[in-house]
Every structure is written in structure tokens, then in C-alpha cells.
Amino acid sequence: MSGFKDDFIQMSVGALTLDPTTKTPIVVLRDADNKLNLPIWIGLLEAASMATELEGVKPQRPMTHDLMRNLMTELGGKVEAVAVTELRDNTYYALIEIKTQDGKTIYVDSRPSDAISLALRTKSPIYVAKKVLEASSELQQVASEPTTSEQNLASVSRDKWAEILEKMSPEDFKYKM
Question: What is the pTM of this model?
């Protein structure tokens, strides 16, 4: 049983898309009721790793996140859960909760994109701290008024995000879940 129960909300990968302005990949985490969304801008390699797992593509040789899963399995460990735990200086932080071979629980610092990729491969739950969702929402609301002629999607409020996402075409969501 995961230690990420209190003050956390379980979420899943709801979409993997591109920021239309910067073409930077975005993973969108969604709660079960589809009321809360957390967009996280990620790297291209991490997006490719998520996409291959979401599509069920099995590479001939293990990729980095496959290697992580395989090492953990061979050493007798198990990923219990992953969690996005903090938003600090516009950067998200995550932890991977691992049950070791001897039954000890350890938490390993991780980038959210790596934690999510590993969770997808191990079928582990993904949690987001309520304080992260609140901070993300506040940050987006404070910056929701565009200061230039082109609006930065990182600064859009949650309601505006929903409006933007609803107006996008299916082609904009290559890996919509």
C-alpha cells in the first residue's frame, strides 16, 4: 500500500500532446472524475518513452525506463507508486516509492517525467500532492493575462486550460487517452 494517500490525489496520464507555440511535449495528468488537470512540460525523449509504452510498442532492446524497471525487478524491488510532490521555482519534483526486497520502503527523488514513464511500465499508481495542484492553479491564474500578443500556455488558468483543450482538434492530441 502506498504512502501517498493523505493530501494526494490519484491521477493518470490523460493526454500526451505538444504545446502549439513551442512544440514542447506536454503530459497531462487527470483525476478519475476528469475535473482536475495538471499539464507538465517534458522533454522529447521522455515523451517518446511515454508514447512507446502507451502505444504498446516493444523496442528490440530495453530503453532507459525499461532498464530501470528490469533492474528493480531483478534486485527484488517493486514500484509501489510515484508522486508529483512539489512545485518550486516553476519546476515540478517527484518521488518514486519503492518496496525493497527486504520489505523496506524507500523514496527516490525523480523528475516527474521519469517517474511517470516508470509508473506506466510498472502499472503503478500516479499521485499528485494537493498542494501542487493548488500551487499550479494559483501560478496559472496569476499569470493568466497575456503580456504579449501570443499567450503562453504555461500561464493559463485551469478553466482556460479546459477551454483551450476543448477547442483543439483530435490531431492535436496524438496520444489522447
Answer: 0.77
Domain range 8-143+151-172, its CATH number among 3.10.690.10, 3.30.70.1110, 3.50.50.60, 3.30.750.24:
3.10.690.10
Residue 39: left (phi > 0), alpha (psi -120 to 50), or beta?
beta
Q: What span, in angstroms and rounded, lies between the C-alpha atoms of 163 and 70?
A: 40
> Parallel, antiparallel, or unpaired: how do β-strands 37-41 and 78-88 relate?
unpaired
Specify which residues 92 forms β-bridges with: 87
Question: Which strands sit side by side in the sheet containing 91-99, from one edge to the other?
Answer: 37-41, 25-31, 8-18, 126-129, 78-88, 91-99, 105-110
* Element containing residue 80 per DSSP (H, E): strand 78-88
CA distances 77 to 28, 58, 71, 72, 82, Å, are 28, 22, 8, 5, 14
Give me 157's grid cell.
488558468
Answer for the pair 66, 77: CB distance below 8 angstroms, yes or no: no
Would you call 126 helix, strand, or coil by DSSP? Answer: strand
Query: Could you read off the pLDDT of 38-97 as tens digits, one per residue?
Result: 999 999 999 999 999 999 988 899 899 999 999 999 999 999 999 999 999 889 999 999
